[in-house]
Amino acid sequence: MNIELAEFQLPDYGLPTVEPDVPADEYEVRLATVRSRMKQARLDALVIYGDREHFANLAYLTGYDPRFEEALCVVTRSGKPSLLVGNEGVGYAGLAPLAVNVVLHQSFSLLNQPRDRLVPLKRILRDAGITPGMRVGAVGWKYFSGSEAPHSKRASELPAWVLDAVKSAVPAGKVRNATALFMASDGVRAANSVHQLARFEFAGTVAGQMVRDAIFQLRPGLSEYDAVRQMRWPGMPLSCHLMLTAGERARVGLASPSSRPMQTGEPFTTAVGLWGALTARAGFLVEDASQLPLPIRDYFDRLVKPYFAAAATWYETIGIGVTGGELHAAVHAIIGDPFYGVALNPGHLIHLDEWLSSPVERGSTTPFVSGMAVQCDIIPATGTAYFTSNIEDGVALGDSTLRRQFARQYPEAWARICARRAFMQEALGIRLKPEVLPLSNLSGYLPPFLLAPGRAMRRVA
To answer: What average pLDDT does the structure give for the chain?
Structure first.
């Protein structure tokens, strides 16, 4: 693959004027789908746990996300689900679009808040429809493979005191891990409706623009905090801590910004994650390779060119019916050498949470399907002075029916998607299948020398 650095006028794709909503009746459809999966799994009830960090399964089903507290949703085969919340969640739960019975359980409240109306959790579970002998699925945020834990279907990530109460409510019954029902590559959250994807496009547009605004205004002497201020975050909920660092702390990747001024020649990384989207970029704070330390002045040829070739191949390979194993093999055929240090899955499903699960692994026969939102997430961790290069954004996969729905119901978002596809194909030389829908205002754009952000990588014939 012939790769070069070229001057670009990155298109102004614009920002959304209206945030799409998931219609309230879609939550009823989700509930019905979950109940169908429960029946297939021979489960009589689900208890779906959530807290500030692990909110996505709960929010997907009910539209409610805990702000300070914990929460639990009890779903049985029929009837209205019960949503158990703490003191501060009672009012906020009124915004949930799914019809639920809101139940106060004060042990979900913050420490030292009132416990004057405390009812034992076991009694609340019984009132919510959990009865002795039931088969109950516990849904948190992680399921386990057979190699991770003995009796992995029984291993649960729920807090012990919650799990104990569930078990005590179903003597002679069974409680098992059912998180895969939501989060596996064939779980209910793996494929999305056009409305959910439109919301993800909204988030992808904003996250991409935030990173774009930051890297196009980098300069020596600017503090990390001041670089973040260029992002103009509009206040949308984050799916992970915002990252922006330069210098030695950039090499650890996950650190938050500081007041430290950035200097020419330093490594740099940044990432913004919003519900449904993440955009990340990394490179060096230089204008060209001559400003790099002498031992790594071949950074462009040694790392960036093969990395961009792998990323372009990722974009060109992914599509409906392609398996995770095929995508993994395509990337590793180019940068499988240990030097590149690509240890994590080169791509994963993304949702309200930044990492849902990943079908992308060696030998995976799991196919990508229409409605999936997928993150291009190929991270070289060289562990050397070459640092890394990074181009991370999301795409949606849509068959012809979904694409027609998108164009008809969300024309503004569809216009951005079409403009991104055109730029990636015509300017960057990345050939996309019709079903690949780029969601970020930086999709495909990789400037390796970050003090010259108008020069980026492209594939040429």
So the answer is: 97
For 204-230, the DSSP string reads HHHHHHHHHHHHTT--TT-BHHHHHHT
Q: Are strands 101-104 and 82-85 parallel, antiparallel or unpaired?
A: parallel
Which regions in the chain score pLDDT beneath 70? 150-151
Position 1 scores a pLDDT of: 75
Q: What angle do CA 362, 363, 369 make, to 5 degrees?
A: 100
Looking at 160-276, which runs of residues are DSSP E strands? 174-177, 243-246, 267-274
| Cα 213 from Cα 227, distance rounded (Å) | 9
- What pTM, to 2 d.p., does this model score? 0.97
310-316-317-318 Cα dihedral, nearest 10 degrees: 110
The residue type of 400 is S
What is the CA angle 311-328-253, rounded to 5?
Answer: 60
Is 177 within 8 Å of 154 (Cβ atoms)? yes
Q: At 96, phi and psi to the nearest 5?
A: -65, 130
Q: What are phi and psi of 167, to 5 degrees?
A: -65, -40
| Of 393, 439, 421, 19, the residue nearest 195 (C-alpha) | 19
Which residue carries 């009694």 as its tokens?
Answer: 123
Q: What whole-number distance in Å separates Cα of residue 443 and Cα of residue 375?
A: 11
What values do phi and psi take at 459, rounded to 5? Answer: -100, 130
- Cα angle for residues 251, 255, 258 (degrees, 5° grid): 105
Instruction: Kindly state the tokens that stand for 158.
Output: 């729920």
User: How many angstroms separate the CA atoms of 308 and 334, rounded?
Assistant: 10
Please tell me the predicted confidence (pLDDT) of residue 152.
73
Amino acid type, 457: M
Listed residue (223, 229, 264, 221) closest to 245, CA to CA: 223
Q: Are 170 and 136 in contact (CB under 8 A)?
A: yes
pLDDT at 151: 65
Strands 174-177 and 277-284: unpaired
Q: What is the rounded distance in angstroms from the CA atom of residue 317 to the CA atom of residue 312?
A: 9
Is 126 within 8 Å of 45 (Cβ atoms)?
A: no
Report the pLDDT value the prediction gives residue 196, as an integer from 0 to 100: 98
Which pairs from 154-159 meet CB under 8 Å and 24+ separation? 158/47, 158/49, 159/49, 159/70
Residue type, 411: P
pLDDT of residue 150: 67
Contact 73, 81 (CB under 8 A): yes
